[in-house]
Amino acid sequence: MQKFAKLSSNEQRATSNEQRITITIENDSSHLVTPNIIYNRFDLWINCDPELFARKDTGYDSCLRDGKFETLHANCGDEDYYMQVLYCAETAKLGVWMSRIPRNVLIEVVNYVFRTHKEVNRIIYRYCLEPLGAHKKINHFRIVLPESHDALLTRMPKHERQNLNSRLRKLKQKGTVTYQEYRADWDNPNVLEAFDAYFRFKNITHDRDFGLTARQYIQTSQTSNIYVLRCDDEVVAVRLSCEQCPIACGENIAYNTEYVKFAPGIVLQNYVLSSLINKGKTELFLGGSNYPGQTCALPILIGNFSFKPPSSKHATS
User: What's the CA angle centered on 144, arms 143 and 145, to 5 degrees?
Assistant: First the structure.
């Protein structure tokens, strides 16, 4: 069985003179979590229907069902770091999505979790900047939002701006183009219509059958906003997002393949970015999805890991 998280010998020598790291629980400091996004803010998560997870036990999803969280404050000399941990039975999820927390601090947090929660035998995370434990490297994209949509468009090469305008102009020639935005209310008929189109589009483009209702999808993905692009009365594209925090997260996007020559996903994304800027959002995190034409989307190496506690009673830091 794996031991507690530990630094390599070189890292141990490099950090031997660092300040002592102390960890305390401060649940009233959730707003200090950085980056302040929904995937790091377990205190804002929607509780999910228990029956949804009866057929699906991945640890992460069961945390959504009946977990509890802690906001941890890690102090290292003059530096303070805040992060949340979600606990559910034997699994803990560490909220460090794109957090710039030093590796030695993260390791101390991991050891703290195992030391104070004896029932935990696995810690999971997504999109950590530090490659701890068993991990894999993939890209993460984001868009840093300026103060105006015009400023964002200037980042795009001229020919890409021209392509965007051309596609939108041709779509308007086909019919009346409208945009709608809805809050994630699963009792709203417009939201149900949007999800019906979203599920149908994904089934065609990705052969994906989610097997979920709109309510279940909203709960499991933490979707807060739904954007819809229509041509006349027909749904052309649907964009789902999580906007509970200063940094928004793009949950997913789907489009009608009959309109593919108009690049409806890019057209709708352009509207979504304008909306986010008007709301004062600072960034849009896109995960592993890169959108053509957005030259400010930056690839970042990230990792995934799980740890198991040691069989002995001795921890290594």
Answer: 105
Q: Taking Cα atoms as reference points, which of 175, 239, 234 lies closest to residue 202?
A: 239
Here the tokens at position 57 are: 């036990």
**Contact yes or no for 147/278 (Cβ under 8 A):** no
The whole-angstrom separation of Cα 156 and Cα 144 is 13
Sequence length of the chain is 317
For residue 164, what are the CA distances in angstroms to 55, 174, 228, 276, 287?
43, 16, 18, 19, 23
- H helix intervals, 49-94: 60-66
Residue with tokens 């040691």: 310
Least confident of 137-151, 171-185, 218-232: 137-151
Tokens coding 11: 């890292």
Q: How confident is the model at residue 258 (pLDDT cuts 50, 70, 90)?
A: very high
Distance of CA 76 to the CA centre of its chain: 27
Phi, psi of 264 (to 5 degrees): -60, -30
- As a whole number of Å, the end-to-end CA separation of the chain is 17
The pLDDT tens digits of the residues spanning 200-256 come to 999 999 999 999 999 989 988 899 999 999 999 999 999 999 999 999 999 999 999
Tell me the DSSP string of 112-146. Answer: HHHHH-TT--EEE-SSBSS--SS----EEEEEE--
Please give the DSSP secondary-structure letter assigned to residue 158.
H
- What are the tokens at 83? 């992060």
Which residues, 6 or more positions from 245, have their beta carbon under 8 angstroms from its beta carbon?
Answer: 36, 37, 38, 41, 44
With b for 16 or more beta-carbon neighbours within 10 A and e for fewer, the 7-16 pattern comes to: beeeeeeebe
Spatial contact of 247 and 285, defined as CB atoms under 8 Å apart: yes
Tokens read off for 258: 């009959």
